[in-house]
Write a structure and sequence with these properties.
With 82 residues, this protein is mainly alpha-helical. 66% of the residues lie in helices and 0% in strands. It is built from four helices and no strands. It starts with 9 loop residues before the first helix and ends with a helix.
Length: 82
């Protein structure tokens, strides 16, 4: 990560500080999330980068169920109460 410095309006700072406390995270993490969303919506993040990020999380989470690949629709129905 690269350290940087920004200036905020006092109201922005106070609101960001309160939000960080409520979410139990740092102000820096909230700023990083906001910058990521801005870059994604502005088209600054390429499709290649989106693909790289999506590929990086493949296999990192486990449901504990062995039939998810064949019964994914049923599992989603159960999860969303449909």
């Amino acid at each position: 990560m690269i350290r940087t410095q920004i200036q905020l309006e006092e109201e922005q700072y106070n609101s960001l500080q309160e939000l960080a406390a409520r979410q139990r995270t740092s102000m820096a993490e909230l700023v990083r999330q906001a910058v990521s969303r801005l870059l994604e919506t502005s088209g600054a993040i390429t499709d290649e980068e989106r693909h790289r990020r999506a590929s990086a999380i493949i296999g990192r989470f486990h449901s504990g169920q062995s039939d998810v690949s064949t019964r994914h629709d049923e599992h989603l129905d159960e999860a969303y109460g449909a």
